[in-house]
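Fold it.
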Amino acid sequence: MSQPSFAPADYQTQLDAKAGRLRDLLAPFQAPEPEVFASPLQHYRLRAEFRLWRENEERHYAMFAPGDKHTPILIEDFPIASQRINDLMPRLKAGWQADVALSFKLFQVEFLTTLSGDALITLAYHRPLDAAWQAAAERLAADLGVSLIGRSRGQRLVIGRDHVLEELEVAGKTYSYLQPEGGFTQPNGTVNQKMLTWAHTALGEREDDLLELYCGNGNFTLPLASRVRKVLATEVSKTSVNAALHNLASNGVDNVSLVRLSAEELTQALNEVRPFRRLAGVDLKSYDFGTVFVDPPRAGMDPDTCELTRRFERILYISCNPETLAENIAQLQDTHRITRCALFDQFPWTHHMESGVLLERR
């Protein structure tokens, strides 16, 4: 595939190339034609991070080409980022340029926004933050209508909230999500909704139970829980676990048990290799698992977790790396076949893509 370019006229060609790549990777497994879910061409990315570059006594938003940390690309706007981020960028820049308490040794800015319009800005410094910074930051946050976090070594000062609130609609129902600073969230909110809807449809209405590995902040957990009797979900990140517990409670989802275990630890628990205190009060034998849902990191599932998923009639798999997805399917193909697959263009103008497959027992 040639290097992608940011040119709206080229988008369909790039998307077709990604679909062809996924088709080729899944061809050895007789996969059906992938469903393709496109992205908006602009203003789709809800997160953005910029280094700052000092030039002519001013600090500018900057990015760097891969492998080059010395030649900045100065940025005034960022068309792939959400409209909210683009609206905030010049106002934030004017704010730090007008106040030395905000600009002194400021080296990085991070934006986190939502489809529902919420925004959080994190400012990172190479100095301790003092009362003058606090006062200036409070004025700036009020002027911008955002929450703001200041970070320096050993310090994290929060003005407003340390999270944003998102709303996503799946199958006619709106779910609310607390998304904490520093926690993982899907960057492309529009495509995330399409991905959630696809998974909700692919799972179907079930009368048995769901095991979910790598549940994060409950992004998939909330809509999928409406399709099954009950869910056992696992996650290792404390930040994500706390966000998921909040999201389950705030949405009134009461058929999910969430445990802080890795996929490997859960495998040991299901195999009765050893007990885990974190499973206290969870009766694993009470579950009638029919489907396992996995959304692993880029490395995919390790071989033992892959073997664990083989036990289930259905494996619903969302992947951010089609190569490791294909490797995992190769391990499973003797017992399971692909009955649905999809491409979700979370990252237009790049080679990256998100994909999904439903595997069912042969």
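Residues 55 and 74 are 10 Å apart (CA to CA).
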